[in-house]
Amino acid sequence: xxxxxxxxxxxxFGSIQAFASGSFxxxxxxxxxxxxxxxxxxxxxxxxxxxxxxxxxKLTKSYVAISDDRSAPRFYDLTIxxxxxxxxxxxxAFTRVTEILDKDGLLFTNLPDPEGIRVLPFPGxxxxxxxxxxxxxxxxxxxMSATGAYLAEFELPEKFVGxxxxxxxxxxxxxxxxxxxxxRNSLVVANESALVQDGERASLTDGSxxxxxxLNARNGKAREEYIYRVDRIxxxxxxxxxxxxxxxxxxxxxxxDLFIAMERSFSLGAGYTIKxxxxxTRWATDVSxxxxxxxxxxxxxxxxxxxxxxxxxxxxDNVEGMTFGPNIKGKRxxxxxxxxxxxxxxxxxxxxxxxxxxxxHWRK
Length: 364
Known about the structure:
Blueprint: E1 26-38, E2 42-43, E3 46-47, E4 51-57, E5 62-67, E6 74-80, E7 92-99, E8 113-120, E9 125-131, E10 140-145, E11 150-153, E12 175-180, E13 186-191, E14 208-216, E15 222-230, E16 244-253, E17 258-267, E18 271-280, E19 302-308, E20 319-328, E21 331-338, E22 349-360
Antiparallel strand pairs: 1-22, 2-3, 4-5, 5-6, 6-7, 8-9, 9-10, 10-11, 12-13, 13-14, 14-15, 16-17, 17-18, 18-19, 20-21, 21-22
């Protein structure tokens, strides 16, 4: 049985500049700087870390960033100073921390894994996602207030419910991405990696077909689903049998069905490879009525490389959050943030990267 809770009081989320819907457009990104907040930094008695999602609030000219600390789910309010047209150390300031509460109004006991967050500035709602975790077979998308109180939960199609290793969402690769859709009544979420029945996780030789799910933000119901094919793992791990993975970690809407997709590949001993793609649901097959795409002829979402962050020439951390920021000289800015894993796997930092988006048409 599918689960659905009505989602109330939806209003317009800012303004996202629209473009012609007939084709991709060429975009380029100008890198305007990096800032780091050391792993272990303490704010209001909490360790700032695990920053897996970020979003900009145009009304307050500030940001929210969600922490994937399973033992104490929370989000931070912060400011990022781009007034001089660049980003550097000292430009990040945390201003508030808020605990996220469960349906009963109490702290979580079932250890969710917060990953994505988006702001609805008026009336002050927040949408957020959780991956599937051990002991909890369902990823979810919820609505909360600015105080962290539970308000509603979106429908979860049965095919996403984890059933051992037989079907559904695999552990730790559930709803990593969340963004707004083509209007105020639509949200888009995506798994990091394939449902069990759809295919394998990425390997050194093959990518992974993950599901992108549209949600109706008026009534809480699930809508269309599409397949996004994640790249294979970028680099061989060291040693050869070491951990390695590749997945879709964030989406951000550019147009009504045109997105920036962030893919992150990690290999032990070789580090991170982060790539940004333009991708679209135009011409892609709606697979919402298909429980398994194996042996099915479907059209996945088209994608086109926007930026390989290796080209920046800096050491990349575990980058997995993405949002637009304020306009800089009439052009949109783009902010990325990393999840430092609380340095559980070695020295890491909370890394912020900033870009200006250049927009040009290209011919097919």
